[in-house]
Known about the structure:
With about 200 residues, the chain is mainly beta. The protein is about 10% helix and about 30% strand.
Amino acid sequence: MSYTQTPHLGLFKPAPNSDTGLWGYHLNNNADALDNALGNNLSGLGGPFLPLTGGTVGALSVGSNTGAQPLTMNGPAGSSRALHIQTAGLDRWVISGGPAAESGSNAGTLLSIARYDDTGALLDTPLSINRASGVVSFAQGGNGIAIGTPTIRSGTGAATGTQPSGSLWLRSDGTAGARIYVSQGGGTWVPIATV
Length: 195
């Protein structure tokens, strides 16, 4: 017996000018081994590989202990490149770059984090970063920013509600003496008189 076999699938490698009468046996065994290794999932494009588009993968690891590798999401200008975090197929969070047009001077492709309700409908985009200016924007309407325990919130009207002591309320429709409020805790807010 002069044939050898491949290390992973055990495919037969008949020896040239030898293995008389075994070539058909080897060919059939190789076809069966390949069919078992790949064929069960070829119709659904699953298996030990992913198709070029679509497909589903379990845990995904990028890089190794010997060297990190980048995870790249590429697309044309004006398109959204996004990472969707879902529950049962419904969006909960989407981290995306785009889809604003890139007209030069570093414009476009804003980075944003959007949040979604239990039905997968968009609630709002509480955080976005402008690529050209680097300005970080937070959603309006009292969603606020938590910095440790105190929060910073903004909106119209005088400050209301209970926030930790030291929290700030920035009133967009206020006048002098009623633009910035500081929480004393327990629902008590004090305006900064000279601002």
